[in-house]
Specification:
Distance between the termini: 38 Å
CATH superfamily of the largest domain: FAD/NAD(P)-binding domain
Oligomer: single chain
Strand order of the largest sheet: 6-5-14-15-16-13-17-20
Largest sheet: 8 strands, mixed
CATH class of the largest domain: Alpha Beta
Shape: globular
Bound molecules: 8-demethyl-8-dimethylamino-flavin-adenine-dinucleotide, P-hydroxybenzoic acid
Number of strands: 20
Radius of gyration: 21 Å
CATH topology of the largest domain: FAD/NAD(P)-binding domain
Strand content: 25-35%
Number of helices: 12
């Protein structure tokens, strides 16, 4: 088998890259370890930045997002018994859409299938060879048959547990990491929305987040011990915790409903540089992870592949290699901005067991500042909508 660009992983990064390349007349093949049903049903992110919304719309895969996603012009910060709004649109002219990641994936898979794109699901034993040459290749097993995909470029979009990152020689890699000593307990609830906008709450019992998925399904999270088990949490115990952290002094109460999914995720910040070696390029979670507090992970995957698609276009159309050579450096500017923002939001909003009472008062002071100073609120809003780096 031969193609121009071999892509490992059918997450947001891999599928969107394949779609963008197709629109530029560049061929690709996507190899995915899981089944189509699995990727189309795994619950993950929900917030799309303005730039992500615009790109999906401009490239013809934004119709369902527009029809079924919820456009939000702000969010609320709850702390010390009060709620204050960050007006994203007034501060930046931009907004966000709440639309589930797996719905974006369904739209991208449908577009690739309709265009006759090559997607292989359920592949195993993926390995990458000859990235130091102009003819790299990917070996994999599909339907019990070992195959070799010859290509011009290999793009590792295989997430944090993939094989691509380790293919870059250790001597060329620098990993930067911060593991947080807490996780998020996530629930999906059958209920109407409790709030028109997302609520990020700082409480002495720990952080909580109220998000949404649709008029009938709500997404909520609360800070927990990452080693805890969902089996220790009855529905009653979960609601008691959510009420304690989110209900406001003025009598606004969360609306309860049937909880139909419970998961615990750990939180870490991670950046691996370089993101390229020879003919191998990494994009999305394969190269970097953010804690979900800033809602940046999916959006960073999108911005990586936007840069990569433009660089590959310059290579094929204009015989230029400068954009490809600069890929890591270009992408890392936005990545480090998002890393800092996500880290900052995480440190400001969570209960930090290692923090002294002094540092806890600083958290509250910082929240007062970002919700009363227009300059500070604007900086937060620019980062949240993805406008802080152009
Ligand atoms: P993905 O989505 O992990 O996709 C990688 C794909 O590669 C496949 N794969 C392989 N395929 C072939 N061979 C191998 N050896 C392979 N190894 C792995 C995997 O099966 C998978 O299908 O990475 P990608 O494309 O880089 O996308 C990244 C995003 O998925 C991720 O950053 C976000 O979900 C993070 N995230 C959020 N991001 C946002 O922008 N906004 C949010 O609101 C948001 N909320 C979240 C989140 C992540 C969360 N979790 C579960 C970590 C909320 C949560 C709870
Ligand atoms: C979500 O709806 O899943 C969500 C929203 C905001 C975040 C993280 C996750 O910061």
């Amino acid at each position: 088998m031969r193609t121009q660009v071999g892509i490992i992983g059918a997450g947001p990064a891999g599928l969107l890259l394949s779609h963008l390349l197709h629109l530029q007349g560049i061929e690709s093949v996507v190899l995915e370890a899981r089944s189509r049903e699995q990727i189309e049903s795994t619950i993950r992110a929900g917030v799309l930045e303005q730039g992500t919304m615009d790109l999906l719309t401009e490239t013809g895969v934004g119709d369902r997002m527009k029809a079924e996603g919820a456009l939000h012009h702000g969010f609320e910060l709850a702390f010390e018994g009060k709620r204050r709004r960050i007006d994203l649109t007034a501060l930046t002219g931009k907004s966000i859409t709440v639309y589930a990641q797996h719905e974006v994936l369904k739209d991208l898979v449908a577009a690739r299938v309709a265009a006759g794109g090559s997607l292989y699901f359920n592949v195993s034993d993926v390995s990458i060879a000859d990235i130091d040459t102009e003819a790299p290749s990917i070996r994999f097993v599909h339907d019990g048959v070992e195959q070799t995909l010859m290509c011009d470029f290999v793009i590792g979009c295989d997430g944090s547990q993939g094989v691509s990152r380790a293919t870059i020689p250790a001597a060329r890699r620098n990993d930067y990491e911060r593991v947080f000593p807490f996780g998020w307990f996530g629930i999906l609830v059958e209920a109407p929305p409790s709030s028109d906008e997302l609520i990020y709450a700082r409480h002495e019992r720990g952080f909580a987040l109220v998000s949404t998925r649709s008029p009938n399904v709500q997404r909520m999270y609360f800070q927990c011990d990452p080693q805890d088990s969902v089996d220790n949490w009855s529905d009653d115990r979960i609601w008691a915790e959510m009420h304690a952290r989110v209900d406001s002094a003025d009598g606004q109460r969360l609306i309860e409903g049937r909880i139909f999914q419970k998961t615990i995720v750990g939180m870490r910040s991670f950046v691996s540089t370089t993101m390229q070696h020879g003919r191998l390029f990494l994009a999305g979670d394969a190269a970097h992870i953010v804690p979900p507090t800033g809602a940046k992970g999916l959006n960073l995957a999108v911005s990586d592949v936007r840069i990569l698609a433009a660089a590959l276009r310059a290579f094929y159309r204009e015989d230029r290699t400068d954009l490809l050579d600069a890929y890591s450096e270009t992408a890392l500017k936005r990545i480090w901005r998002a890393e800092h923002f996500s880290y900052w939001m995480t440190r400001m909003m969570h209960r930090l067991d290692d923090a002294s009472p002094f540092e806890q008062r600083l958290q509250v002071s910082e929240l007062e500042h970002v919700t009363t100073s227009r300059a500070a609120a604007t900086a937060m809003a620019e980062n949240y909508v993805g406008a802080a780096v152009v």
